């Protein structure tokens, strides 16, 4: 069995037709392979925008590189919620999304998972099986709340991959440098260390694979416009892996370089206590650092850049996980 419950991310029995919360599973679900992902990060760290763009990028990757695969919403609820809450504001109205409502809210559209078809790929038993991406967006408000009931977010414990976003604009030194270079973003969320501590509380003794991604990386890239500072030298280094987009070519070796570079960047950003926490909590479990930008350029006020969205390295965290499971890997 390679499929898990899309609601709780927990195991199922062969032939089950209902999820653990009693919802009907898609036909043949227990014969398929699931990849269960959960987003994490403070308020306004960029989770929802990232998720919107991630799906678009996956669709593109499939269309451009894997002719036999079409990435589509797997059920009507995913189709409707994704298009209304994520795709439309971003790609049609070119506006920001409102903050994701806390899961205690009746309108919490993210309480149910989003399920996408990833096409057929050889499963660990060698059989070609349908693969699904099951992904959950979470309200930063819930993740910042140290009293949120772990039972209400139990899916974190059973996730295959947690993608936690780290907002560089929350770093005081960076914010000072950036003043004047990019429009000020209002309404930033809480401290990433507190979010990480709370995430560990929600995870209990479990350690799902963790992708810790510096989000809004476009803002850091503008630091090379400064006339004189350490940051100009660091971000102006065009040889650095984090200055190059890799298109869709995920490569484990260059990821390793990026991991080390982003690790030192985080140290320079004085995120040492976060790094120490990650390194000690994830001593025996896989984690990697990433750098992503959903927008590619800092937004001005309510509206997104008129040049459109130029996502940067958004697929890396997911491909780190999926490529280890033979999905979106070319058989040469
Ligand atoms: N410069 C830049 N800003 C971004 C990027 N992604 C998000 N932002 C900004 O961050 C704001 C918040 O993004 P969201 O995706 O709504 O944040 P969230 O983490 O889902 O927030 P909650 O739902 O409250 O937890 C956006 O309105 C943008 O202003 C990015 O790639 N680059
Ligand atoms: Mg959100």
Q: What would you call the shape?
A: globular
Question: Quick one: biggest sheet?
Answer: 7 strands, mixed
Helix-residue proportion: 25-40%
Domain count: the total is: 1
How many strand segments?
A: 7
Distance between the termini: 27 Å
Describe this structure in words.
There is one protein chain. By secondary structure, the chain is α/β, with parallel strands linked by helices. It has a single domain, classed as Rossmann fold (3-Layer(aba) Sandwich). Helix content is 33%, strand content 14%. It is built from 11 helices and 7 strands. The protein has helices at residues 47-65, 76-92, 140-144, 155-158, 172-178, 192-203, 217-221, 230-235, 252-268, 272-281, 316-323; strands at 33-41, 72-73, 114-122, 128-136, 161-166, 209-214, 287-291. The protein has a 7-stranded mixed β-sheet with strand order 2-3-4-1-5-6-7. Strand 3 and strand 4 (128-136) form a beta hairpin. Helix 1 (47-65) packs across helix 2 and helix 6 packs parallel to helix 10 (272-281). The two termini are 27 Å apart. The mean pLDDT is 90. The structure holds guanosine-5'-triphosphate and magnesium ion (MG).
């Amino acid at each position: 069995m390679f499929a898990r419950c899309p609601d709780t991310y927990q195991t199922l029995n062969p032939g089950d037709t209902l999820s653990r919360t009693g919802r009907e599973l898609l036909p043949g679900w227990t014969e398929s392979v699931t990849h269960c992902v959960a987003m994490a990060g403070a308020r306004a760290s960029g989770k929802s925008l990232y998720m919107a763009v991630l799906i678009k990028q996956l669709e593109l990757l499939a269309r451009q590189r894997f002719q036999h695969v079409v990435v589509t919403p797997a059920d009507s609820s995913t189709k409707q919620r994704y298009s209304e809450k994520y795709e439309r504001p971003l790609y049609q109205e070119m506006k920001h999304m409102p903050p994701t409502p806390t899961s205690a809210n009746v309108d919490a559209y993210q309480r149910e998972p989003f399920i996408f078809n990833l096409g057929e790929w050889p499963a660990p038993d060698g059989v070609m099986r349908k693969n699904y991406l099951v992904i959950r967006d979470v309200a930063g408000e819930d993740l910042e709340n140290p009293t949120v009931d772990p039972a209400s977010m139990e899916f974190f414990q059973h996730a295959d991959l947690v993608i936690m976003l780290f907002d560089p604009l929350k770093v005081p030194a960076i914010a000072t440098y950036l003043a004047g270079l990019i429009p000020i973003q209002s309404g930033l969320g809480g401290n990433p260390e507190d979010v990480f501590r709370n995430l560990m509380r929600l995870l209990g003794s479990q350690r799902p694979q963790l992708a810790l991604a510096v989000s809004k990386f476009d803002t850091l890239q503008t630091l090379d416009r400064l006339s004189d500072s350490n940051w100009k030298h660091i971000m102006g280094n065009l040889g650095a892996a984090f200055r190059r987009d890799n298109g869709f070519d995920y490569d484990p070796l260059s990821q390793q370089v990026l991991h080390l570079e982003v690790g030192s960047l985080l140290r320079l950003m004085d995120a040492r206590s976060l790094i120490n926490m990650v390194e000690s909590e994830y001593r025996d479990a896989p984690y990697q650092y990433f750098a992503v930008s959903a927008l590619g350029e800092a937004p001005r006020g309510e509206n997104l850049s008129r040049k459109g969205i130029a996502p940067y390295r958004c697929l890396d965290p997911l491909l780190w996980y999926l490529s280890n499971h033979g999905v979106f890997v070319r058989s040469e």
